Amino acid sequence: MKKQISIAIDGPAAAGKSTVAKIVAEKLKYLYIDTGAMYRALTYKAIQKGARLDQEAQLIKILNDTLIELLPGETGQKVLLDGVEVTTDIRSSEVTNQVSYVAVHRLIRREMVMRQQDLAKNGGVVMDGRDIGTHVLPDAEVKVFLLASVEERAQRRNAENIQKGFPSNFEKLKEEIAERDKIDSEREVAPLKKAVDAVEIDTTSLSIPDVVDKIMELALERIG
Ligand code: CDP
Ligand code: CDP
């Protein structure tokens, strides 16, 4: 049997992580794990409960009492929160604009990292997030850091919204993405940054298949 490696994909919002991670996982028949969905699910529940997102103790209490399941779905990953599907709900702009405030807390990250490491313990995973190569899977055989200009990333989200028939404002998206990048990169615990041994890919002018090919090349080298 071929070696089952772990692939870590990190980078800022809308760099293309989940799109390419999903395709690479399909090609290799690996498990795709979008760790952002776990922070989003907790944020969604905390908002519903009226919790204060700056209060770590309140949030950890909620998390300790929360089951987040990431299951393979027809169009990627299906997310269940305490047994109820929330795949779409956790993508709302309210959750998107609050999630980084939840993800700053040390205890929350510690618990999330433990859960993520458990999901990846048998290898054969493509995991995307912000701290996968640096903290969650420091020994991953392949580490990739995806980048793209903020204009390009806002343009991508804008195009997604328009395609779905949602209202969209490019300038607002640009501001929101820049703000989230800032919080994610400047937080004290496990900030968004390239692992020293990660391969950086600037996707600004690359197509999705171009990025997938580059990652597949790195993966196949390691799988042998
Ligand atoms: O898909 P998008 O890039 O918009 O975001 P996401 O991957 O769903 O992540 C949402 C937020 O969760 C990020 O902005 C981070 O604040 C947090 N996150 C994190 O701190 N660590 C991770 N491994 C994944 C996400
Ligand atoms: O997961 P992350 O937030 O990093 O980004 P994503 O949700 O995978 O990608 C954001 C959007 O950019 C999607 O609509 C992709 O189809 C698009 N994309 C692109 O146009 N070119 C790429 N090289 C990668 C993604």
From TrEMBL:
<dbReference type="Pfam" id="PF02224">
    <property type="entry name" value="Cytidylate_kin"/>
</dbReference>
<keyword id="KW-0547">Nucleotide-binding</keyword>
<keyword id="KW-0418">Kinase</keyword>
<protein>
    <recommendedName>
        <fullName>Cytidylate kinase</fullName>
        <ecNumber>2.7.4.25</ecNumber>
    </recommendedName>
</protein>
<dbReference type="InterPro" id="IPR003136">
    <property type="entry name" value="Cytidylate_kin"/>
</dbReference>
<keyword id="KW-0067">ATP-binding</keyword>
<dbReference type="InterPro" id="IPR027417">
    <property type="entry name" value="P-loop_NTPase"/>
</dbReference>
<keyword id="KW-0808">Transferase</keyword>
<dbReference type="GO" id="GO:0016301">
    <property type="term" value="F:kinase activity"/>
</dbReference>
<dbReference type="InterPro" id="IPR011994">
    <property type="entry name" value="Cytidylate_kinase_dom"/>
</dbReference>
<feature type="binding site">
    <location>
        <begin position="11"/>
        <end position="19"/>
    </location>
    <ligand>
        <name>ATP</name>
    </ligand>
</feature>
<keyword id="KW-0963">Cytoplasm</keyword>
<comment type="similarity">
    <text>Belongs to the cytidylate kinase family. Type 1 subfamily.</text>
</comment>
<feature type="domain" description="Cytidylate kinase">
    <location>
        <begin position="7"/>
        <end position="219"/>
    </location>
</feature>
